[in-house]
Every structure is written in C-alpha cells, then in structure tokens.
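User: Fold this; tokens only.

Assistant: Input:
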Amino acid sequence: MADYRELNRANWDDRVTAHVESPDYAVARFCAEPGFISDVVGFDLPLLGDVAGLRGAHLQCHIGTDTVSLARLGASMTGLDFSAPAVAAATELAAATAADATFVQSDVYSAADVLDPGSFDLVYASIGSLCWLPDVARWARVVAALLRPGGRLFTRDGHPMLATLQYGRDDDLLVVTGPYFETAAPQESEWRGTYVSTDREVRHGLTHQWNHGLGDIVTAVLGAGLTLTGLAEHDSVPWNALPGRMMNVGGGEWRLAEGTSRVPCSYTLQAVK
C-alpha cells in the first residue's frame, strides 16, 4: 500500500494555488484589511476567548489564514503543515500582513521534534484536520508534548457522525454508509476537485482518510494526560458537506436545510495540560 502521507501530501500540494486564488480563503482581504480574520476563527472566538499574549502552535495549518487570524488577535503563532507549497504560501501571507506568525514544514506526528516541546500556551487545530490522520491517540500525545503545564488544546472539526452519511441522495433520508469508529484501513477516495470555487483540477486526486468517533477522540485526549474542559456540538459546518441538502447560513457556515436537529455537523473540543 502506498504511504498515506505521500498520497495526501500530493493532493494538498495540488490544492494550494487554487486555495490562494479563491475568494473562499480571502487572501486578498487579509492583505487589504488589517483587522480581517477568517470565518473559521470568527466562529471559534466565543469559545476560544482572548488569545492575546499567548504562544500558539497551529497544527495542519494549510496556507495559514487561520494562523494569521490568531496572530491578529494577539497570539504569537507557529503554523505547521506537511505541504511545502502550503508553508510557502503561508509564509508569504504572514510577510504581506506583518503578522506575528512563522511556519514550519513537517508531518504533524513529528511536530514535537521540530517545534519547542512543553512551551506552547495554545495548540490549535482548525476544521478538517483529524480525518487525514490514521491514529488519533498518537496525535493527542503530540499535542500534550507541545503544551506547557496549564496550556490548552482547542480544536473544532467536522463531526464524525456527519462523516458517516451518504450524500447526493434525492430523498429526505440521512443514510449512514461510512464507518463511525476509527478503523485500521483508510477510506480511499479519488476526487480531482476541491472545496473552493475554482476551475483548477487537482492532478493527484487519490487520498486516504479516517473517521474518529467522539469516544475515540475524547479517550485519546484523556489518555495523553490532558483534562477535558469542554465539548460542544454544533448544527453547522464551514463547508457544503451534503450537497443539495444544506444551505449557506452566513459566516462561511452550512446547515441542513431541513431538520437541523437530526445530526450534529461539527464539534469543538477543549482540554488543558
């Protein structure tokens, strides 16, 4: 079997140019508006609270728009991503906006080897992170290694229940077809598109992903020695996760058009060391 990291890295390398160019990531607005922050960080703020003065690590940061947003809120940020083109784009964005943000290329499982372990007040993981990793317990141990005593993990991600649902149906049913729990084998998919508005085609469309149930995630965080301080479920998610079934409700968020109480779409988890 091909190394999942090489497959996924090739896919994400291909997405960078489209994402930098797309209005969905709003790179031009970051450069033009000194107070602008991403919709993702804007959604997080009520639970995230004041980050001014904190030293933060943003894992799987992609092109750095959320990282720069946290820096604009007063944090001193280090972003980490396995894609060299993404790190280059993020570094360029930070320079163009004079943000207190630096970026490092590394696989997330090696983050404690390339960053300063035990020194971060905040480890932040934004939407769409954990599905690319085969072992959530290993990820949690990396988070714990990066945090100083009293430091905090903050992550919002797509809900594992949402990830089980079949999309593209013509009826009103929400049908579970995918695994809810973490599995050893990946879910393999081939898609040459991406989730932003673009005419560019992804050349390397094959990816490997994994779902992780909430129990898997909470157990991993507790097993890494962290104390759970918050777990909230939300009825929206910042992409059109079920095309034809969701509506854009503003702020970059999508919600089921009918029966919004039927399924959670995302969650926010917080823990401290």
